[in-house]
Amino acid sequence: MTDPTHDHTDDDTRQRQTRWRLVMGPGSEQLCGGLTAQAQQQEDCLSFLYDREYGGGRNVRSRDGDRSGSLDASSLTIPDWINKIHELFPQATIERLEQDALERYEIDEMVTNPEVLARAEPNQTLLKAVLRTKHLMNQQVLKAAQHLVRKAVEQLMQQLAEDVRVAFQGSVDRRHRSHLKIAKNFDVSTTLRRNLKNYDPQTRRVTVETPYFFSRVRRQVDRWQIIILVDESGSMLDSVIHSAVTAAVFYSMRMMKVHLCIFDTAVVDLTDQIVDPVETLMKVQLGGGTDIGQAVHYASTLVENPARTVVVLITDFYEGGPPARLFSAARKLVESGVTCLGLAALDERAEPTYDAQVGAQLVKLGWHVGAMTPGELAAWVAEKVRR
């Protein structure tokens, strides 16, 4: 007869074997069995740290005081490790791993050595690692880290600014001429036709005395308002970074009234600092609970003209507060005429992990839900405001 608890017992056994396998490390495969892909990543992170107990570790201070490894772009092992443990382990485990890294094994470059940070090559991996460990830094190191964050953010802004601006630039209006001599607006056919009188048969060339250009349609979006709500839970860090930068680009264009708010169990309105995404990011406190309903309600208090307002909610939709309150606030926004967009991811990959049930319920209420790159978000917003 089949035991009805068999599957449940097998799952418990596998979980216990995995835990022991992670505790005992490589070499215990015969006793504890193999690992899933995620458990293997967890073991790699644990080995990176605790293999130092036996010497020969990477980026480790050996017993004679010699230190190997660096934070250069070719060997970003410490930032990679920091990012991985925040993705793979619960908060209590993360705190213990960070404590052991700093106190037991003296892996302190990221949080105690401003010279190391000054030499580091700015990139998004390092940016995320700094944001995850800034609470461990003293003021001197924090200053060096902020300089590094600024360089990385400037690189990201250069990448995103063009995508956002193109979406709002407007289409070519071929019915009207323009006095603005911009190469991409050059009207070749009209220029040749109206300068044919200057054709030289001997050289077979047309001398252009008067070039002609297309005008571009200016989108009347000055009165539109965009309210961006960003979940600052640890799993949303990529989206937090891209949201801060995208909001700053929107603001710099002076085409919309932009609000930026971050939230966990409380809402922090950072609109007055939107011009500087570095200041925004350095105020982010990753982790903690999530009250999406409260954030959506706060957005409703900012709305000036519902018919010309877009609310962008960026979250994994894992609601820590009462779901009924979230759905009520979400419904009221839609019924008032606000255009509402929920994004489970806003980054260069747009690969979401989210609560599908909450997302589906918001769709039923009239929200648009998905995942986008910053360029796709800009195109989506531009399409809405030009109607």
UniProtKB/TrEMBL annotation:
<dbReference type="InterPro" id="IPR002035">
    <property type="entry name" value="VWF_A"/>
</dbReference>
<feature type="domain" description="VWFA">
    <location>
        <begin position="223"/>
        <end position="382"/>
    </location>
</feature>
<protein>
    <submittedName>
        <fullName>VWA domain containing CoxE-like protein</fullName>
    </submittedName>
</protein>
<dbReference type="InterPro" id="IPR036465">
    <property type="entry name" value="vWFA_dom_sf"/>
</dbReference>
<dbReference type="InterPro" id="IPR050458">
    <property type="entry name" value="LolB"/>
</dbReference>
<dbReference type="Pfam" id="PF05762">
    <property type="entry name" value="VWA_CoxE"/>
</dbReference>
<dbReference type="InterPro" id="IPR008912">
    <property type="entry name" value="Uncharacterised_CoxE"/>
</dbReference>
